[in-house]
């Protein structure tokens, strides 16, 4: 016990989530396998200690070393129990902490990939615009440059968010912070380089061209009236399209099973693509307004843009809800399938069969118990994910609640079947032992009867 206490005291926490979960599983296995054996040894020693004390009353008092006295053994045993509980709690707290940091790290990886992709797009657009900037009308060229500049500002916002994530991870001593800082620095350097190229190849030449050209205002005046007519004609069409699209997306159901949810998710993705494609039409309308001078047109354009942004947010949220639901249902279905396979093996067993292999059944019981203990961590993780979605007021709460209830009911039923297996196995062993002894007794009687008949 003293050695175990020292080992627990000197044990260091792992850095990774997988290692911590393995350590927690080892601790749980130690509690279920080794600790009961040690407890039996302790009880046996206590019994021997009392027997020796009884015998020493007649032969003389026997003194034990301090470490071998019952009170000291019981005290050390309590220390071991408390130390194991404290270590388990520390491991669970560390797992909880690392899971939170893991989510931040996953968010960092997603957004850094997104940032890399956006930088690729911006770099490609700069190369394309550089080839045709001198051929385009100055208003169109400026509009294209404004679009690129807006995208670069968006990338800067993502980089600021990534810096905040790195700060949090660094403060919490996350083990992959160094690699993530290097990755962020590479993205930042690439962004700075692209900005310089953008300034040199597009902004500076366009500024010089704008200063030399004195007819920009005349062009605006000439095209303003035509643009205003075009704007008025298409404005209502845009509003109607946005309203129809929002109703259509809203009518898409989440579904009740994996296949239905996946089908509806694909449908939502298609709707999102159509919204992204339609965004170009909204952008072209803004170009018309920029070349015009009507204040009322600008106000209507702002209303249209606001409504379109609401549609984008609505579709994106619907997509996120559908993806999170699909992820949960997929995990929950795996757990239900695993439990049903275990259930089928138990309920289909014929205990009245005469050829039952009790040794094999005893091994099966141990295996099933170990499988349940190992699976419990994964099962609880899926349950927690579903409960988290309910706390976030997921729109498909009814479907999630049904899956959670089915999982909990089947898990409880499987635990009852495990207990039934243990009881059935015990009775089967008694049954077979009885008939074995009865058969031996019958053979003995027959043998002695034959002896009596021959004498």
Question: What's a quick, concise take on this entry?
Answer:
This is Plectin. InterPro entries: Plakin (IPR043197), Spectrin/alpha-actinin (IPR018159), Spectrin_repeat (IPR002017). The protein contains 10 helices and no strands.
What is the strand and helix layout of this fold?
Blueprint: H1 2-10, H2 17-59, H3 70-132, H4 138-171, H5 177-212, H6 216-251, H7 258-291, H8 295-347, H9 358-391, H10 397-454
Helix pairs in contact: 1-3, 2-3, 3-4, 3-5, 4-5, 6-7, 6-8, 7-8, 8-9, 8-10, 9-10
Pfam family, one: Spectrin
InterPro entries: Plakin, Spectrin/alpha-actinin, Spectrin_repeat
Keywords: Coiled coil
Describe the model:
By secondary structure, this protein is mostly helical. It folds into two domains: 1-210, Methane Monooxygenase Hydroxylase, Chain G, domain 1 (Up-down Bundle), CATH 1.20.58.60; 252-446, Methane Monooxygenase Hydroxylase, Chain G, domain 1 (Up-down Bundle). Helix content is 88%, strand content 0%. The protein has ten helices and no strands. It has helices spanning 2-10, 17-59, 70-132, 138-171, 177-212, 216-251, 258-291, 295-347, 358-391, 397-454. Helix 4 (138-171) runs antiparallel to helix 5 (177-212) and helix 8 (295-347) packs antiparallel against helix 9. The longest helix has 63 residues, at 70-132. The radius of gyration is 37 Å and the shape is elongated.
């Amino acid at each position: 016990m003293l050695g175990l206490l020292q080992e627990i005291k000197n044990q260091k926490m792992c850095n990774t989530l997988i290692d911590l979960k393995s350590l927690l599983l080892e601790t749980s296995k130690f509690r279920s396998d080794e600790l009961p054996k040690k407890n039996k040894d302790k009880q046996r020693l206590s019994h021997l200690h009392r027997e020796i004390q009884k015998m020493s009353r007649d032969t003389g008092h026997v003194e034990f070393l301090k470490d071998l006295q019952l009170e000291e053994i019981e005290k050390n045993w309590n220390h071991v129990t408390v130390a194991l509980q404290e270590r388990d709690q520390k491991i669970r707290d560390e797992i909880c902490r690392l899971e939170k940091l893991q989510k931040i790290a996953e968010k960092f990886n997603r957004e850094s990939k997104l940032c890399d992709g956006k930088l690729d797009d911006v770099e490609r657009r700069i190369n394309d615009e550089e080839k045709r900037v001198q051929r385009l009308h100055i208003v169109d060229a400026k509009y294209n440059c404004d679009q690129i500049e807006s995208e670069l500002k968006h990338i800067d916002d993502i980089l600021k968010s990534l810096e905040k994530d790195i700060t949090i991870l660094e403060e919490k001593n996350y083990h992959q912070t160094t690699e993530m800082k290097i990755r962020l620095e590479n993205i930042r350097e690439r962004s700075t380089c692209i900005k310089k190229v953008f300034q040199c190849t597009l902004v500076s030449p366009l500024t010089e061209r704008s200063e030399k050209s004195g007819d920009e205002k005349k062009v605006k005046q000439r095209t303003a009236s035509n643009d205003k007519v075009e704007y008025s004609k298409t404005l209502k069409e845009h509003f109607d399209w946005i309203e129809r699209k929002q109703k259509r997306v809203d009518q898409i159901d989440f579904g009740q099973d994996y296949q239905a949810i996946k089908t509806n998710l694909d449908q939502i993705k298609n709707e999102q693509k159509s919204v992204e494609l339609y965004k170009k039409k909204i952008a072209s309308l803004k170009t018309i307004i920029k070349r015009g001078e009507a204040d009322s047109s600008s106000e209507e354009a702002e209303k249209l843009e606001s409504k379109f942004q609401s549609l984008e947010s609505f579709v994106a949220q619907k997509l996120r809800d559908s993806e999170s639901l699909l992820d949960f249902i997929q995990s929950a279905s795996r757990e239900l399938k695993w439990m049903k396979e275990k259930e089928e093996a138990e309920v289909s067993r014929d205990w009245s069969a005469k050829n039952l292999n009790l040794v094999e059944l005893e091994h099966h019981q141990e295996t099933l118990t170990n499988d349940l203990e190992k699976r419990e961590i994964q099962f609880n993780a899926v349950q927690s994910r579903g409960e988290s979605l309910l706390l976030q007021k997921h729109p498909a709460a009814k479907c999630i609640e049904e899956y959670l209830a089915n999982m909990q009911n089947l898990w409880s039923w499987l635990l009852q079947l495990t207990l039934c297996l243990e009881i059935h196995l015990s009775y089967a062993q008694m049954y077979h032992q009885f008939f074995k002894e009865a058969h031996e007794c019958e053979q003995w009687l027959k043998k002695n009867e034959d002896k009596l008949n021959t004498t």
